[in-house]
Each structure stands twice: as structure tokens, then as C-alpha cells.
Amino acid sequence: MDPKAFFKLSYGVYIVSTSADGKNAGCVINTLTQVTAEPARLSIALNKNNETLKLIEISGTFSAVVLSDDVTMDQIKRFGFQSSRDANKFDGIPQGRDGLNNPYPTDGVCARFACRVVSTLDVGTHVIVVGEVIEAEALDMNAPALTYSNYHHKKNGATPPNAPSYQKDAGTVVGYRCKVCGYILESDTLPLDFICPVCGKDASYFEKL
Amino acid sequence: MDPKAFFKLSYGVYIVSTSADGKNAGCVINTLTQVTAEPARLSIALNKNNETLKLIEISGTFSAVVLSDDVTMDQIKRFGFQSSRDANKFDGIPQGRDGLNNPYPTDGVCARFACRVVSTLDVGTHVIVVGEVIEAEALDMNAPALTYSNYHHKKNGATPPNAPSYQKDAGTVVGYRCKVCGYILESDTLPLDFICPVCGKDASYFEKL
């Protein structure tokens, strides 16, 4: 099994969020897919340790926003590098509220969806959640969506348009790289309970750069 | 509900194939996603009318290849513009056979996976199939993967790297466009039983260009 084969899969980058029991939660994912058109339904895959999944299972609803290519790393770090257990990620940032009463970030976002959960599937470490789209809104049609590949370039401080992400990074970055998906945490330390915000692997799968 | 919001979702383009009861089947999809890393599992969504889904339900296995940016439209048309009910799409083309005995195309392909089905989920018009990855092989790491956006440009005879697909097409192409996903069938006629190879909508959702 050659892990490099997985680098050839293409994704966008999204923030999924919800609200339940007076708490907000949100996280960064790359696994959002439209699975049916009539009615429009989206699927997402979330790690079982993820606080956002726990709250979605309570609320039965979620918001999903499509990140733009010009989103800042601060925005991604806010939603990707900490847990909603420890912080309200929506504190002090521009946000909207969808028709299902879920908050969603509005900076660096080009489209958004509000979904009601119709089914879930346990797939091991993750749960696939299928949501029926109740609201769909294009917020900035001129902003290209951030691709997962360009996200890696952004993380590495450069944006060559077509170079595969695995061909660059080490040497210029201080931090830890997920050996599974290539995600890089720019940090001097790797928290023991760190979970890769993209593929969901735990800290044992990270290597020091 | 603004359908343009869905244009902001990013995908790759893949061919999924299988073999059962002495028959081969394969089709073009954009919905392949890695949903877990340990063990590695992929999800795909297939239209219930799709012959490939019917054979996967029998074989319990499938191959998935990642199309390269330089794949020819002939290759895509072979797998996307006809049904495996009517033709063996593997007749006369370069192909491999995975360890689960499924054929897969090798031209215009940069990576491949062989999967054993672990679960399925009915999501309406489509079925989500989750497969555990038994084999993963990078076939051409230098070939960029075809993105769904560039696929539309390729269909339209041009490849501007970052222009959203919905901003161009009509006027230069003779054919029919899927009003749901933007897929264009270059043809003088639209078969009554035509199903959009990307989003699975039937012919009634196509408009003449």
C-alpha cells in the first residue's frame, strides 16, 4: 500500500459548525461532498473524538462553509488547531446564523449551506453524516474556493498553483507533519492529544520536520 | 436555495469499476473521498440506476482510479457517456487487474485503489458505498490529478487554470448542459435515457446550448 496514492485525491476545505445545549462547535474538514441533487444532500465525515460531531448528533443540523483561496491561516488555525471543548471558536469573529440557528464564519468564505441531518453511517474512526440542504447561498462568486492542495501551499508559505503538496515543505517549516495526509502543524510543540484537523489521525502519526 | 453555491465545492474525477457474473462495469464519478485513515477507507456515491453500483453490490469489491489532468476526452466519454449495460467499456483499452479481480483503466490515470465494500448507505437517488482499501498504488506521481473544475474546461476545449467553470462554456459548444452540475454533453442529440455521469440527474435536467 503506497500512501502517496492518497495524495492524488482532490478536495476542497470547509468549516462545519453547529450549536446545541447553548454551546457552539466548529471544525475544519476536507470531506464535504454533494451526494444527491434531488433533493440536494451533502455528506461529511467527522472523527468520533470531534466535539463538532457530538453537538451535531444532538442538534441534528449543521452549517458548512466553503473556504476561499484568500482565507487567512489565522482563520484556519482558529477552527483547525484547537478543540471546541476548550474554546468557543466563534468568540469575536464575523459570523452569520443560518435558518437552523447554527453560527457560521463569514470571513474567507465563498459559499455556505445549512443542512438537516437525514442519516449517519459509522465507518470506524469516523462517522459519515448526510445532511439535506435547507439553505444554499453563494457569498462570493468571484473568490476561487481553497483547494486542499493549495491549503498545503498556504501552510507552507507559498502558493505554486499546480505543484503537488508532497513535493515541497520540509526544510522551510518548523513543526510537525501528519504522515498520513501531509497536514503540517507549525508549532514548536506537538500536544499529546493533538488530532489532525484534516484526516483525524492522533499525535502518534506526526513526524517532526 | 442558490444552485451556484454548489459550484464552489471541489472534487477530483475518478473511474470506479468492478466485475461480477462475468461482466465488467465502470463509470465516471466525482464523489470519491477518503473517510478514514486507519484502516484506510474510501467512500463513493453512485446513482441507483448505475450498472456499476449493481455489480458492486454483487462483487462486494471495486477498483477506483484517479484521472490525470492529461486524460483524453475519449477516455472520459468511454466511461461517462454510455452505460455498462450496453457495452463492455474495457474492450480494447489498456487495463490492469487488481488483486480483487476487478479491471481498471490505465491510460490517463495517476493512482489507483482496490477496495472491499464494508458498508453502504441509501441516501435517496444514490447509495454511498464505503470500501476498505486493500491496494493503493501511485502510478504517475508527476501527473497532476484532474480536478472537476479543470474537467469542465477540458470539456469546453480550453483550460484556464483558475476560472470557475460556470463562467464559461455556452456559445462555443454544441450540446446539452446539466442544469444541476454544469456537466456538458457534446452531442447533437440527447438520449432520452441519458443520465448525467457526474451528478446522476436524468435527461430532463439537461438544457440545449
UniProtKB/TrEMBL annotation, chains A, B:
Keyword vocabulary terms for this entry: Oxidoreductase
Top-rank taxon: Bacteria
The protein's required cofactors: Fe(3+)
GO MF: FMN binding; iron ion binding; riboflavin reductase (NADPH) activity
Residue runs in coiled coils: none
Segments forming domain Rubredoxin-like: 173-209
The protein's name in its UniProt record: NADH-FMN oxidoreductase RutF, flavin reductase (DIM6/NTAB) family
Protein's organism: Enterocloster lavalensis
